[in-house]
Amino acid sequence: MDAQVQIKELDGSKIYIVDDILDKPNRVARFLFSRQTAALQGAPWEDNSKIFFKGRYVDFADTACPVIWLAQKLCKQTIDFRGGFKTNVEGWVDVGENDYENNYWFPHLDNGYTCLVYLNDNDDELNGTNLYDPSLKEEEWFKSCMEKVPRGFNPWVSKKKVKLLEHIPSKYNRMVLFDGNKFPHGTAVNNKQYFLDLNVNPRLFRSNVSFFFHPYDKKTSS
């Protein structure tokens, strides 16, 4: 892998960006996203497949996979979920409940560094990933939500309650690696590119692959 790594520092933490990370991104995208992806269940996804779609496919990759190898080398953490990776497949219906102009889509935390590879070849790069101010982790409503998301919780959170620090553009075949435990983060929804009929071709949904990491001395239950 002849990777050119861009490094940006944010609030004392490094963000790594590698463009053109996969040799054959179209082949990967066809394999992962040309299928019907299972819709997530439970809170906060009670309206899933009604006014939005949030789907995920889970599989396993050898730790020698170049993306995993590079990410582990950069962040100095180990792959989580027993070497698994997850897809994120998302889309929204154009209805009033999906008010992206006044809300952010489900800010959350991960166990450690988070690695994403964006795989929409027609993406306008405006709907990437938002990183929010770590002070959000001190808010009682957020701490409670991260312990257990209550039933009926709206995945859209008012922008008045969250401070945006950084938007990472979703360039096709870009890998981004950031500390998902330091920064609350979530999908950026800045226009209606992925507002669509939920019955359309799965390849039209916002799609990426996620790898999760955690410090070597930290055990996780996942």
CATH first level = Mainly Beta
Q: What's the number of structural domains? A: 1
CATH architecture, by name, is Sandwich
**Strand element count:** 15
Order of helices and strands: EEHEEEHEEEEEHEEEEE
Looking at this protein, list some descriptive labels.
single chain, mainly beta, Jelly Rolls, 3-stranded antiparallel sheet, 3 helices
In a nutshell, what does this entry contain?
The protein is mostly beta strands and 222 residues long. The protein has helices at residues 25-33, 66-75, 140-147, and strands at 5-10, 13-19, 38-39, 52-56, 58-60, 78-79, 84-92, 103-105, 113-118, 129-132, 156-158, 164-168, 174-179, 185-187, 206-214.
Lay out the secondary structure.
Blueprint: E1 5-10, E2 13-19, H1 25-33, E3 38-39, E4 52-56, E5 58-60, H2 66-75, E6 78-79, E7 84-92, E8 103-105, E9 113-118, E10 129-132, H3 140-147, E11 156-158, E12 164-168, E13 174-179, E14 185-187, E15 206-214
Antiparallel strand pairs: 1-2, 2-13, 3-4, 4-7, 5-7, 6-15, 7-15, 8-11, 9-13, 9-15, 10-12, 10-14
Describe this structure in words.
The structure is a single chain. By secondary structure, the chain is mainly β. It has a single domain (5-214), classed as Sandwich (Jelly Rolls). 12% of the residues lie in helices and 33% in strands. The protein has three helices and 15 strands. It has helices spanning 25-33, 66-75, 140-147, and strands at residues 5-10, 13-19, 38-39, 52-56, 58-60, 78-79, 84-92, 103-105, 113-118, 129-132, 156-158, 164-168, 174-179, 185-187, 206-214. Strands 1, 2, 3, 4, 5, 6, 7, 9, 13 and 15 form a ten-stranded antiparallel beta sheet that branches. A three-stranded antiparallel beta sheet has the order 12-10-14, with no helix packed on it. The longest helix has 10 residues, at 66-75. The model has no long low-confidence stretch (mean pLDDT 93).
